[in-house]
């Protein structure tokens, strides 16, 4: 046995030596069976229990029976205090219930007391929480598949950021607020995407779609009295289904090429239009200059004619003769002319014009050396 003497040594509770001096755990050696017999025997269980009761009576005041009642009472009081006192953390709010009915007061962060078991408390986190909806592109799950307004299927993954602003409503107006919020968010996103073409959700109008979805979710949750405030809706990913992703990529590349061609055409048109506008401005400037010149020349000619006319009125004969002479001078200045005097007796059949032309040709300088 574990307490038997080995090689003359003591048992596990001390003591040594031989015969009859072995000590048990309560200071006495184990009882040996009556009638003698050699060897060590296990202790008597009844004797151990009796000795333990005697020691407990000495410790507990009022005896074993009165002390047990007091001990049970103290244990019950401690258990009641543990359940009656609770702590609310800074990111939490507490709602106390009296006979299952929530109180109007909200327990703020700190240590609080309530009358348990007639009153209980429900703790709610009021920090911003995130609800992820939809599956990533390439996933086999179809939770994010939606039909767009142009009859295309898109896979939308988005998240809803929300806080609990009315803890009592959040706890007791809806049975499962997170599941309800998820269903409302999915329905709102499908409604908005179903009214728009797929191109809007891919890149053109994501922010506008997110704002529309946020408004629908907030209005629906307010109508339910859920006590939830929607802070933001973020579209994290929007892609075509995996089966038709290649076709959508081709469409995207074609649209990008179209945009590029349109930009190049606009650039070319702006260049040509700028050149045409410059030429038009130049022509307008030249026309304006020509107009001014012609008008001024006409004004000068009119003034000159008026001045001559004024002089003509003063001396008509002189002015008439002067005008005649000036006109004849302009006419005869560059013309070939032969002056004949009737008294010279020149023959009328001589080719005077040809002779004059030959003389003029000889008078011209010759080229070369």
Automatic annotation (TrEMBL):
Q: Which residues form the Band domain?
A: 83-252
Which cell locations does it reside in?
Answer: Membrane
Transmembrane regions listed in the UniProt entry: 59-82
Q: Which UniProt keywords apply?
A: Hydrolase, Membrane, Protease, Transmembrane, Transmembrane helix
| SMART domains reported in the protein's UniProt record | PHB (SM00244)
Q: How does it sit in the membrane?
A: Single-pass membrane protein
Q: How does it assemble?
A: HflC and HflK may interact to form a multimeric complex.
Q: Which family does it belong to?
A: Belongs to the band 7/mec-2 family. HflK subfamily.
User: Any idea what this protein is called?
Assistant: Protein HflK
The organism of origin for this protein: Rhizobium halophytocola
